[in-house]
Design brief:
Pfam families: SBP_bac_3 (PF00497). 37% of the residues lie in helices and 23% in strands. The protein is α/β, with parallel strands linked by helices and 308 residues long. Helix 1 packs antiparallel against helix 8 and helix 3 crosses helix 8. The protein is globular.
């Protein structure tokens, strides 16, 4: 598959019944005229995928600046399904780097067709863009130095906390400070690596973010043993692929692909590959077992946000 990189429902039945329903839902893209974004993709013979440069293990660069990761593998499976659905075996894949600040605008303005990074599906964002079925579930916690006196949110008084700009974690933290009138200074950085550097260099006492992001930053640190993921989870979030709002044909293909992966065992194998095994480029292992919430999603694929 030739690629060009540019830097810049609710509950569904499981098993065979689920796959049958997903297949039926996708029939309009095959049996009827293509509309909307699928028609555009077919006409230009190209699909544009948005990816993240450093969202380990979801979507990030290897040593050769090739995109790899759990979400990226799922995106490629969706592309494979889409090729068959629209009869475009030679469909080209163009890739554009996105970040937390521009990923939604790039979907809205038509620059990106599908983004599979580490994006949270919530009710507010669902007013702006569409989301596939959930591909992962994460919880927000704190990353601190092992020898710090921070063990929970209650220990953040008078401290500086790093968070990545444009994320739901940033929004939660700012709301928390406002509602609790907490004495917490917030430093927002462009990406996760910069947020961790704020902690690493001592400018922040903790880094607040999704637990899988924190685990990846800890695993890639010069001295991982100096850091610990701690504190009670503050939020639980559904991670999904993002697509233009109202694009039912494209969503049907994405959902059908994800349902097949999650109910067949392929999705569990992908999870173990990226969350429970050494991964490129440095052979780090996040050692994050699948949560009960994520197991439930795999048993019953759905596109429900978790902020109800």
């Amino acid at each position: 598959m030739k690629t060009l990189q540019i830097k810049a429902r609710h509950w569904a039945p499981c098993g065979a019944i689920a796959l049958l329903l997903y297949g039926c839902f996708a029939l309009p893209a095959q049996a009827q005229d293509l509309t909307g974004r699928l028609a555009s993709i077919k006409d230009r013979n190209t699909i544009v995928l948005g990816y993240r440069e450093s969202s380990v293990p979801y979507s990030y660069y290897d040593n050769n600046e090739q995109v790899i990761g759990y979400s990226h593998d799922i995106a490629l499976q969706i592309v494979k399904e889409l090729k068959a659905a629209i009869n475009a075996p030679n469909l080209q894949v163009k890739m554009i780097a996105v970040n937390a600040q521009n990923r939604i605008p790039l979907i809205q303005n038509g620059t990106v067709d599908l983004e599979c990074g580490g994006t949270t599906n919530n009710k507010e964002r669902a007013q702006q863009v569409g989301f596939s079925d959930t591909i992962s579930v994460t919880e927000t916690r704190l990353l601190t130095r092992t020898n710090s006196d921070i063990h929970s949110f209650n220990d953040l008084n008078g401290k500086t906390v790093a968070v990545t700009a444009g994320t739901t974690s940033e929004r939660f933290l700012r709301s928390y400070v406002h509602e609790k009138n907490a004495n917490i200074t917030i430093i927002s950085s462009r990406d996760h690596s910069a947020s961790f550097m704020t902690l690493e260099t001592g400018r922040a006492a903790a880094f607040f973010m999704d637990a899988d992001v924190l685990a990846s930053q800890r695993a890639t640190a010069h001295n991982p043993q100096e850091y610990v993921v701690t504190g009670e989870p503050q939020t639980r979030e559904a991670i999904a692929c993002m697509l233009p709002k109202g694009e039912t044909q494209l969503k049907a293909i994405a959902d059908r692909t994800i349902a097949r992966l999650e109910t067949s065992g392929e999705g569990e194998a992908l999870y173990k590959k990226w969350f429970m095994s050494p991964i490129a480029p440095k052979g780090i292992n996040l050692n994050l077992p699948m949560s009960d919430a994520m197991k439930a999603v795999f048993q019953h694929p759905n596109d429900q946000p978790m902020d109800d």
